[in-house]
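User:
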Amino acid sequence: MGSFNPANVSLPYSHYIGGESFDSGTKMAVLRPSDGQAYADVALADLDLVDRAVDNAWQAYKQSDWAKKSPRDRAKAMLRWADLIVADKENLAPLEALGSTRPIAAVKQWDIPFCAEGIRFFAEYADKLGGEVIPTDHGHLGMTITEPYGVIGAIAPWNFPLVMASWKIAPAMAAGNAVVLKPSEMTPFSVVRLAELAIAAGIPAGIFNVIQGDGKVGDALCRHPLISKVTFTGSTKTGALIMSACAQSGTKPVTLELGGKSPQLVFDDVKDLDKVAQRIAAAITTNSGQVCVAGSRLLVQEGIAEQLVSRITERFDDMVAGPTWQTSSTLSPIISSRELARIEGVVQGAIKQGGELLTGGQSVAVDGANSFYKPTILQQVDMSMDVVREEIFGPVLCVETFATDEDALQLASHPSYGLSAGVHTADLNRAMRMVRELEAGTVWVNRYGRSWDFAIPTGGFKSSGIGKDLGRYAYEANQKTKSVLIDLGA
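Assistant: Predicted structure:
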């Protein structure tokens, strides 16, 4: 898993439509998060190019055999695609790490294998889920038939470019749809390579198209009349705009994984405080907290709070800030100087309101590049403060203490978010009560973070989203159901 020279990475063209890569549109400089340096220009699509991409996908959906071929053959093509992704790791990993916040070691060890395995998982659903025969009276035959929607519009975030793209495209394509993907304009290139590998695997041209652009392009994609469904991961504010655009242009369905402000509840019966400290630290420092499910609120029982926070601080001190192209780097850069300034502002605002800074609270310069933020712990905070209430998307952990289970549940409740939560306890009864009572789409017990169990769906409650990524639910959400009733007596 060696380091690489960023100057030696070969970049693909901006757009990929109908099996061809090309540049077209106004150019925008793309910056490396690690040092803020421009390393490429990306061509932003205009409305005509959005039309071209969607029309091409529609024609591919109608004219190729992708939707109508044997589901097993569709699965085989996607399995070949996953194998090619893994085989291309030495090319794909530097491309992903260069322009994102993902360190090269993490990309090779986790992102690329996770992306490929997700594609394999959904490929296997292609010939295993479908309609059913419905019980009716003896003279009738009732059934349901599942069909693809047609063309899915997918909008992926910048924090895990390959992984988040695979969550969108894999279930949609396995179900027989074509996909037009718009990645973040801040991390544009690795998914283009993903599309090139799809063609090499034998997936028909046009079934997976990629266009680059900002929010205007995303809005046009949502409103396009040939887009039958939209899937998006990102902020709650943008998710609301996407819902509005889809409602105004045909009430098309949406799957939205949105913001979070996830609590971690630690009770004083935990057996190994060191393990819990490691878990808590990883939950807020992975990708420098730029994760929708980041465990950003630590709620700890009073008797063990001081010990636990001390041990978390030790883990924070072990983090190594460095550019994503160095294997020694374990603390990711913040995606942009604008986001770094926003994080600093929220933390300083909390201190002015009476919050106590225990560690961190400042940016970190590496090789002259002020692109990193030191893992931070704040206490003496509450829900009235932005630092507790709002999603920060940075390595900032807010600590509150509780005395009883009821106190813990009250603190855990958030007025708008309900994406995920963690519970750390040795008491099974307490754990199951917390699982029942917490308002979160995912609850982890004595762990924090997703596993390789792709069968477990993910998605939020309240303003944290609609629908599910991963699992059977994600596959089924990419098909429409037709009801059939046959009169046998006729």
